[in-house]
Design goal:
Elements (H helix, E strand, L loop, with lengths): L1 H11 L2 E7 L5 E6 L1 H5 L2 H15 L6 E5 L2 H13 L2 E8 L2 E4 L10 E9 L3 H12 L3 E10 L11 E6 L11 H4 L12
Parallel strand pairs: 3-4, 3-6, 6-7, 7-8
Antiparallel strand pairs: 1-2, 4-5
Length: 188
């Protein structure tokens, strides 16, 4: 299945090479432009179905994702599961549920996101669920590009696991070589 997912991502133009500033502040020679995938409902449905199939036997009440890519991924997974979808927005250094989203104590929550690098967005969403007394039963992501395993204390499923090198800004060889830094989403 990894080959099929990789083919879908390539066909959608998701994988970009260059010198990129990630939302984590890290630099990378590879960027996964997930919105290239998410613009195609048929591709999104197909890849999200892998997450649904993995967690379908769990008792899921709500799918929650961090803004922004997690909104679309979470919505599609929730649609396929027949449950609600909510999202956690940044508020300072934390994530919160706004827009009158409700989460009851004991609700079983599946966390959904697009690309996993450091896990910061997912951890923030887990914290927001925990504040409301929800129970995180698992995490589903489209692409896990993390270079080290991240322990969230719940099962993690990724449609594609492709560790991708990242550099702290101060130790980036691409910066040292003078390769122009691109902040994705800010081009053109």
């Amino acid at each position: 299945m990894n080959n099929e997912v990789m083919d879908i991502l390539r066909n959608a133009g998701v994988i970009k090479e260059g010198h990129f500033l990630l939302s984590s502040g890290l630099h990378s020679p590879v960027y996964w432009e997930k919105f290239r995938l998410l613009q195609y409902p048929a591709y999104t449905e197909k890849v999200c179905r892998l997450i649904v199939q993995h967690f379908k036997d769990q008792s899921i009440d709500v799918v929650a994702g961090p803004t922004t890519g997690g909104i679309i991924v979470g919505f599609e997974i929730a649609r396929q599961l027949g449950v609600r979808s909510i999202f956690a927005e940044k508020e300072g250094e934390t994530r919160v549920f706004r827009r009158d989203f409700e989460l009851s104590a004991g609700d079983h929550v599946l966390i959904a996101d697009d690309v996993l690098t450091t896990g910061g967005s997912i951890k923030g969403t887990i914290d927001a669920v925990n504040k409301h007394g929800g129970v995180v039963i698992g995490i589903g992501v489209l692409v896990d590009r993390s270079t080290e395993e991240i322990n969230f204390n719940v099962p993690l499923f990724s449609c594609l696991r492709v560790p991708t090198i990242v550099y702290p800004a101060e130790a980036c060889p691409l910066c040292a070589a003078g390769v122009p830094l691109v902040k994705p989403g800010s081009e053109g």
